[in-house]
Design a protein that fits this description.
By secondary structure, this protein is mostly helical. The chain is built from 6 helices and no strands.
Length: 158
Protein backbone atom coordinates (compact mmCIF):
# COMPACT_ATOMS: atom_id res chain seq x y z
CA UNK A 1 0.00 0.00 0.00
CA UNK A 2 1.35 3.43 -0.91
CA UNK A 3 1.73 6.08 1.75
CA UNK A 4 -1.13 8.51 1.53
CA UNK A 5 -1.25 11.95 3.04
CA UNK A 6 -3.93 14.48 3.71
CA UNK A 7 -3.20 17.03 1.03
CA UNK A 8 -5.75 19.40 2.44
CA UNK A 9 -2.92 21.06 4.37
CA UNK A 10 -3.95 24.60 3.47
CA UNK A 11 -0.53 26.21 2.82
CA UNK A 12 0.63 23.40 0.54
CA UNK A 13 -2.73 23.16 -1.17
CA UNK A 14 -2.95 26.92 -1.84
CA UNK A 15 0.63 27.31 -2.96
CA UNK A 16 1.13 24.13 -4.98
CA UNK A 17 -2.31 23.53 -6.47
CA UNK A 18 -3.44 27.11 -7.14
CA UNK A 19 -0.99 30.00 -6.79
CA UNK A 20 2.14 28.45 -8.31
CA UNK A 21 0.38 27.00 -11.38
CA UNK A 22 -1.26 30.38 -12.06
CA UNK A 23 2.07 32.21 -11.80
CA UNK A 24 3.80 29.60 -13.96
CA UNK A 25 1.09 29.89 -16.59
CA UNK A 26 1.41 33.71 -16.50
CA UNK A 27 5.13 33.29 -17.23
CA UNK A 28 4.29 31.06 -20.19
CA UNK A 29 1.89 33.69 -21.54
CA UNK A 30 4.59 36.37 -21.25
CA UNK A 31 7.14 34.19 -23.01
CA UNK A 32 4.81 33.46 -25.91
CA UNK A 33 2.98 36.77 -26.35
CA UNK A 34 5.50 39.30 -25.01
CA UNK A 35 8.96 37.77 -25.45
CA UNK A 36 10.71 41.14 -25.82
CA UNK A 37 9.24 42.29 -22.48
CA UNK A 38 10.18 38.97 -20.87
CA UNK A 39 13.75 39.10 -22.20
CA UNK A 40 14.26 42.75 -21.23
CA UNK A 41 13.15 42.06 -17.66
CA UNK A 42 15.00 38.77 -17.18
CA UNK A 43 18.42 40.10 -18.13
CA UNK A 44 19.91 43.44 -17.07
CA UNK A 45 21.88 43.37 -20.33
CA UNK A 46 18.83 43.12 -22.59
CA UNK A 47 16.33 45.63 -23.88
CA UNK A 48 13.12 45.09 -25.83
CA UNK A 49 15.14 45.80 -28.99
CA UNK A 50 17.49 42.89 -28.11
CA UNK A 51 14.70 40.45 -28.97
CA UNK A 52 15.05 38.81 -32.38
CA UNK A 53 11.80 37.34 -33.79
CA UNK A 54 13.87 34.54 -35.33
CA UNK A 55 14.42 33.25 -31.76
CA UNK A 56 10.68 33.05 -31.00
CA UNK A 57 10.85 29.26 -31.11
CA UNK A 58 13.03 29.26 -27.99
CA UNK A 59 10.46 31.34 -26.12
CA UNK A 60 7.63 29.14 -27.37
CA UNK A 61 9.39 25.97 -26.29
CA UNK A 62 10.15 27.46 -22.88
CA UNK A 63 6.50 28.52 -22.59
CA UNK A 64 5.44 24.96 -23.45
CA UNK A 65 7.64 23.65 -20.63
CA UNK A 66 6.08 26.13 -18.23
CA UNK A 67 2.59 25.02 -19.27
CA UNK A 68 3.64 21.45 -18.52
CA UNK A 69 4.83 22.44 -15.02
CA UNK A 70 1.57 24.30 -14.40
CA UNK A 71 -0.43 21.26 -15.58
CA UNK A 72 1.54 18.89 -13.37
CA UNK A 73 0.95 21.01 -10.29
CA UNK A 74 -2.65 22.03 -11.00
CA UNK A 75 -3.94 18.72 -12.34
CA UNK A 76 -1.62 15.80 -11.63
CA UNK A 77 -0.94 16.67 -7.98
CA UNK A 78 -4.60 17.40 -7.42
CA UNK A 79 -5.47 13.92 -8.73
CA UNK A 80 -3.52 12.01 -6.07
CA UNK A 81 -2.67 12.04 -2.40
CA UNK A 82 0.12 9.50 -2.90
CA UNK A 83 3.04 10.90 -0.94
CA UNK A 84 5.64 9.28 -3.22
CA UNK A 85 4.12 10.93 -6.31
CA UNK A 86 3.98 14.32 -4.61
CA UNK A 87 7.58 14.08 -3.38
CA UNK A 88 8.84 12.90 -6.78
CA UNK A 89 7.09 15.71 -8.65
CA UNK A 90 8.09 18.41 -6.16
CA UNK A 91 11.71 17.24 -6.15
CA UNK A 92 11.80 17.49 -9.95
CA UNK A 93 10.34 20.99 -9.91
CA UNK A 94 12.71 21.99 -7.08
CA UNK A 95 15.67 20.91 -9.22
CA UNK A 96 14.27 23.08 -12.01
CA UNK A 97 13.88 26.00 -9.55
CA UNK A 98 17.53 25.69 -8.51
CA UNK A 99 18.69 25.61 -12.14
CA UNK A 100 16.45 28.61 -12.92
CA UNK A 101 18.03 30.54 -10.02
CA UNK A 102 21.48 29.49 -11.19
CA UNK A 103 20.76 30.77 -14.70
CA UNK A 104 19.42 34.01 -13.26
CA UNK A 105 22.56 34.40 -11.14
CA UNK A 106 24.76 33.82 -14.20
CA UNK A 107 22.84 36.46 -16.15
CA UNK A 108 22.61 39.05 -13.37
CA UNK A 109 26.11 38.59 -11.99
CA UNK A 110 26.75 40.67 -8.87
CA UNK A 111 23.30 42.29 -9.20
CA UNK A 112 21.84 38.96 -8.09
CA UNK A 113 23.08 39.65 -4.55
CA UNK A 114 22.33 43.39 -4.59
CA UNK A 115 18.69 43.37 -3.47
CA UNK A 116 18.55 47.15 -3.60
CA UNK A 117 19.21 47.06 -7.35
CA UNK A 118 16.45 44.57 -8.08
CA UNK A 119 13.53 45.64 -10.22
CA UNK A 120 9.94 44.73 -9.45
CA UNK A 121 10.21 41.96 -12.03
CA UNK A 122 13.32 40.59 -10.26
CA UNK A 123 11.41 40.50 -6.97
CA UNK A 124 8.53 38.65 -8.59
CA UNK A 125 10.76 36.22 -10.47
CA UNK A 126 13.44 35.49 -7.87
CA UNK A 127 11.16 36.01 -4.88
CA UNK A 128 8.56 33.53 -6.06
CA UNK A 129 11.26 31.02 -7.02
CA UNK A 130 12.72 31.30 -3.53
CA UNK A 131 9.30 31.11 -1.81
CA UNK A 132 8.09 28.11 -3.79
CA UNK A 133 11.49 26.43 -3.63
CA UNK A 134 11.48 26.77 0.17
CA UNK A 135 7.91 25.44 0.25
CA UNK A 136 8.90 22.44 -1.85
CA UNK A 137 11.90 21.79 0.42
CA UNK A 138 9.67 22.02 3.49
CA UNK A 139 7.28 19.47 1.99
CA UNK A 140 10.13 17.15 1.00
CA UNK A 141 11.54 17.11 4.54
CA UNK A 142 8.07 16.59 5.97
CA UNK A 143 7.26 19.96 7.57
CA UNK A 144 3.59 19.85 8.50
CA UNK A 145 3.24 16.22 7.47
CA UNK A 146 2.90 13.41 10.00
CA UNK A 147 4.86 10.86 7.98
CA UNK A 148 5.17 8.40 10.87
CA UNK A 149 1.41 8.42 11.28
CA UNK A 150 0.96 8.08 7.52
CA UNK A 151 3.27 5.05 7.44
CA UNK A 152 1.25 3.41 10.22
CA UNK A 153 -2.01 4.11 8.38
CA UNK A 154 -0.55 2.63 5.18
CA UNK A 155 0.46 -0.57 7.04
CA UNK A 156 -3.09 -1.17 8.22
CA UNK A 157 -4.64 -0.20 4.89
CA UNK A 158 -6.18 3.17 5.78
Amino acid sequence: MYEQFEYNRLPYRLLMLYIDPILIFAGAVLQHFAPSFYLAHMSPHSTPSTYDPASQIVFDQLAASYVLFAWIEAVVLRSTNNLKVWKTVLLGILICDVLHLYGTWLTMGSLFWDLGAWTGFNWINIGTLALFGATRMAFLIGVGLDEKGMAEQAKIGL
